[in-house]
Amino acid sequence: MAQNKTAQKTTAKVKDISYYKRKFWRLFFYGFASVFLFFLFASWGLFGAMPSFDDLENPESNLATEIISSDGVTLGKFYNENRTAINYKDLPKSLVDALVSTEDERFYEHSGIDAKRTFGAAVKLGKDGGASTITQQLAKLLFHGEGSKFLPFRMVQKAKEWIIAIRLERQYTKEEIIALYLNQVDFVNGAVGIRSAAKVYFNKEPRDLKIEESAMIVGMLTNPSRFNPNRFPDRTLTRRNIVLGQLVRNNHLEESAKELLVKKPIKLDFHPESHLDGTATYFREYLRDYMKNWVKEHKKPNGDEYDVYGDGLKIYTTLDSKIQQHAEDAVKAHIKNLQEEFFKQQKSNKNAPFISITSSETKKIFDKAMKNSERWRILKAQDMSDEDIIKTFSVKTRMTVFSWDGQKEMTMTPLDSIRYYKHFLQAGLMSMEPQSGQIKAWVGGINYKFFQYDHVGQGARQVGSTFKPFVYATAIEQLGMSPCDVMLDGPFMIRRGRHNVSTNWEPRNSDNRYRGMMTLKKALANSVNVISAKLIDKTGPQAVVDLAHKLGVTSEIPVQPAIALGAVDITVQDMVGAYSTFANEGVYIKPQFISRIEDKNGGIIYEPIPDTHDVLNKDIAFAVIKLLEGVTEGGSGERLRTDGGGSGSNRWTGYPYMFKNAIAGKTGTTQNQSDGWFIGMVPNLVTGVWVGCEDRSARFRSITYGQGATAALPIWGFFMKKCYADKDLQISKDDFIEPEEMSIKVDCGGPSKYSNGTSKRRDSTAVEQEQNTDEFEL
Question: Could you tell me which residues come within 8 angstroms of residue 126 by beta carbon, excluding any fewer than 6 positions away?
Fold first, then answer.
């Protein structure tokens, strides 16, 4: 009996064990099946859409459009997110080693999921717990962003993240995954992706990062906001040193080297990238406006418009970064010092900076400025009445204002700030290669952040005597004249009715003097008004207007004899394009600023075709060049051959000019010194400069400082000095090429001052007389 009971108990135990085994295996099977089905359903997209093969092959992200100079320098970007993708080969080894050592030590061993880290972090279910691999982090960045705080949703997201990570590992190499990951991370302060981070924090390309700089950037990955080096330098330093320790742990850095590196402070070269800052800001804005129309005319193969802010285009421009920098430096150096003189002269002016206008005219200027202001736009959007808005302009407030010594915090009324800004001299400079039409420099103003009106492509101003070469060119072409022909500088009148003149017009030289017989070369050199008027009387105004339009001038030009003295508004861009025709043997080439545009994959999607046409034959073009050489040999531009002298502002820029090479050019000064111009040419570079205030009634009292020879010419001189000193640029010092069998007499006798260097400074009285001839009166 005892044996039977024992056998029964044994049988019962066996049954119990079998029962529990079956139960265990059922639970295991159901659990495994549930997990399997959970991941299977997730992969099918039942818990939310999963990326397709194409999505994995071409993950969508906002890529900034790069603006690239002709010498390969990034001038700026257009972006929603400041991200510019780079390849693995452009990453320094120190950065890759720091990333893997800190974020995923077994990165090269797993296939997207690190089982050891995952099981180790299982106790922290619902949190990352440090288990995510680099590939998982990439999956999260690309396809679902921040994790949910609700546990069931977080589990679903985690499952999708694992599946995507495995698929990414199949789709990409380890190196490609690292590059994709670093291109996606937002490093704050407007730096999205590793290239932007290296530029913003250290002002360099990623490949140039030092070990400690790479460690700091990798240290930010845990929480870029928490380890922001601008806001939390001590915290970021501690984190950087932890990353350096990880490099030692993974045998990428010697302990002794680490001990030296951890003692180094974080040295930022902080360059936040903004549309308002950097180089070529006015050009970049002009380009942005151009691209608005470009995307409508040039579609993707599928018919969609390109997204300038997200498609990662590369716009290769014609600008040369070095020439651009020299141009910006020249404008800043001269205008900063000229501005000091302007402020001095306005101290005694009760209506500063306006001269010779009534109180009602001044009020109109302020009313217009108020209505064009950002303050007016914002308050108007809040349905405030005009009367109430105007009242706010008389309430003192704290504001940041521009000065040549840097931004300043000041308390003033908005109305006072308008008057303050009206004092500032503005400038426009454009430089172009005449043989190709490629624009090499574009400076539209003195500071884009505070003055956003572009004085190169946007603002047309009266050109003064710089228009006279068009009159002379017409006379040479139509009348067969030459630079050596002689005309009488004496009293002259165009009577009412001739050339549609409504009243008798008697042009005068600004000093009311006449100099008798003189060659055309000398007349243009000294901007003699009477000679220009006599020439347009002979050719007729319509012929001059027609020629100006053929030379690329797009402004409307009145068909009146007074245009001979420059009573025409033209942009710097058009004037440089027109003058370049003379240097290009009579062939006009429309100024170009884009060489090509590529898509994000490097495929060329646009290459412009130069717009060219013949305007003048070579002989006439060269004859005009010889006329313009006379301006710098013995005319209003002669100070380029000397140390500047007198009120010339090389004493401000610190350069004696002393140019010995061939230079063709023309100064220009408009009525009441509101606009100062100089357009200068050497064989392979034509540069136009304009200087003046925003309002034409804001100006210098006298011609001494307001004329083109003082206001604009020094910028050209300083700019060219910088260009010639930069041997990589190869700016020509040669003579202009004379056509074979030249049919027009251009050698009028006398020494060539640029060839033998014998130019001597004349007495100050003579200089002032010559300068005054730049002014014209209507």
Answer: 151, 154, 155
Same domain, 531 and 676: yes
CB atoms within 10 A of CB 247: 24
Residue 198 structure tokens:
């290296």
Please give the order of strands across the beta sheet that includes 676-682: 438-443, 425-433, 685-693, 676-682, 664-669
The residue type found at 81 is: E
Q: How far is CA 575 from CA 457, 527, 582, 686, 724, in A?
A: 10, 18, 12, 10, 23
The CA distance from 544 to 469, in Å, is 10
Number of domains in the chain: 4
Does residue 36 share a domain with residue 94?
Answer: no
Pairing of strands 408-412, 486-489: unpaired
Pairing of strands 685-693, 676-682: antiparallel
My answer on whether 212 and 159 are in the same domain is yes
Task: Tell me if 425 is assigned to some domain.
Answer: no
Average pLDDT over the chain, rounded to an integer = 86
Q: Is 62 exposed, middle or buried (0-12, 13-18, 19+ CB in 10 A)?
A: middle
Q: In 190-232, which ranges are continuous DSSP H helix? A: 194-202, 211-220
Give yes or no: residues 638 and 718 share one domain.
Answer: yes
Give yes or no for residue 544 having a pLDDT over 90.
yes
Residue with tokens 């599946």: 163
* Average pLDDT of the segment spanning 251-275: 91
Per-residue pLDDT at 586: 97
Calculate mean pLDDT across residues 141-166. 61
CA dist., res. 232 & res. 225, Å (int): 9
- 382, 527: one domain: no
Who's near 549: CB < 8 A, 6+ residues apart?
A: 557
**CA–CA gap between residue 747 and residue 517 (Å, rounded):** 18
Predicted local confidence at residue 581, as pLDDT: 98
- Structural element, H or E, at residue 489: strand 486-489
Do 562 and 690 fall into the same domain? Answer: yes
Residue 13, pLDDT > 90, answer: no
Strands 74-78 and 65-68: antiparallel
Q: Check pLDDT > 70 for residue 668.
A: yes
Tell me the CA distances in angstroms from 726 to 276, 431, 437, 642, 721, one per residue in order: 28, 16, 22, 21, 9
pLDDT for position 20: 61
Domain range for residue 568?
432-595+614-760
* 635: in domain: yes
Handedness of CA 406, 407, 413, 418 (dihedral sign): positive
- The pLDDT assigned to 755 comes to 42
C-alpha of 184 from chain center = 25
- Boundary residue ending a domain (224, 250, 272): 272
Q: Answer yes or no: do 476 and 545 share one domain.
A: yes
Distant-in-sequence, close-in-space partners of 22: CB < 8 Å, separation ≥ 6: none
Lowest mean pLDDT, pick from 121-130, 138-147, 160-169, 724-733 = 121-130
Q: Which residue has the tokens 């010419």?
A: 713
Q: Which residue, 205, 201, 218, is CA-closest to 253? A: 218
Instruction: Specify if 28 maps to a domain.
Output: yes
Torsions phi, psi of 605, nearest 5?
A: -115, -5
Nearest to 497 by CA among 545, 544, 537: 537
Look up tokens 């705080």; give the residue. 149
What CATH number is attached to the domain comprising 102? 1.10.3810.10
Are both 263 and 369 inside the same structural domain? no
Confidence of residue 501 (pLDDT cuts 50, 70, 90): confident
Q: How many CB atoms lie within 10 A of CB 341?
A: 17
Q: Which of residues 272, 304, 326 is at a domain's end? A: 272
Residue 776 falls inside a structural domain: no
The Cα–Cα gap between 336 and 404 comes to 6
**Residue 126 pLDDT > 60:** no
Q: pLDDT by residue (tens digit) across 707-717? A: 999 999 999 99
